[in-house]
């Protein structure tokens, strides 16, 4: 019996199941990999927002990571909600000892506008976490939070990428989903930019008229990590992740009274 590629997520829990660890593991399974987890925080969260968050101690995060990596091993790692400078520093130190590719999703704010990263942790993200990344996947709000660069057009995404790459990741995937539809390069197109500072890959997909998009960022980063674990190059993995998350957004469904999640199992339901 063949062991599937192994992917580790280091992130917070979403009790509503749409984002965080739960979204990561669903995505990893959907893309044919074995997902494993290091829990960094517990949130009380639903379709309306985050009602509470409790950070785990650094020693608990370190113990989970060593338990998985030292026995099972990993072929890719994805990071999400790290919440504090202490956790960012701890995780960055752990990642520095790996040879496997690392996808850093520098989660700062939830879909509902709830803060998931302390302002005091931003410098640790810039100087310690981003340099460990094979690919960093910020959205435009996170780019502004980390670099001060504010983007309102697709062309401005190059400046955003340059600003992120200056902190040391090998590749930056700048997500343009927050651009107004009329600011993208074509009406009705959602465009992302993947670049290492030399190569440029513009990833395009149709915009879907669906408000149920909770978990989009977690899902994209996890899909990227899963494809890297399966042996894709970074451009191949990013294109495959974009295709997967676009389908998940199109199939996003109502859940509760607020914003529902993307559908991680959309391929199963379209066969």
Taking the alpha carbons of the first and last residues, their distance comes to 26 Å
Q: What assembly state would you assign to the polypeptide chains in this entry?
A: single chain
What shape does the CA trace take? Answer: globular
What about the largest sheet? 9 strands, mixed
Strand order in the largest sheet = 3-2-1-4-5-6-7-8-9
Q: Using the CA coordinates, give the radius of gyration.
A: 17 Å
Instruction: Give the fraction of residues assigned to helices.
Output: 25-40%
Low-confidence stretches: none
Helix count equals 8
Topology pattern, helix = H, strand = E: EHEEHEHEHEHHEEEHH
How many beta-strand elements? 9
Structural class, please? Answer: alpha/beta
What is the mean pLDDT? 93
> How much strand content do the residues show?
15-25%
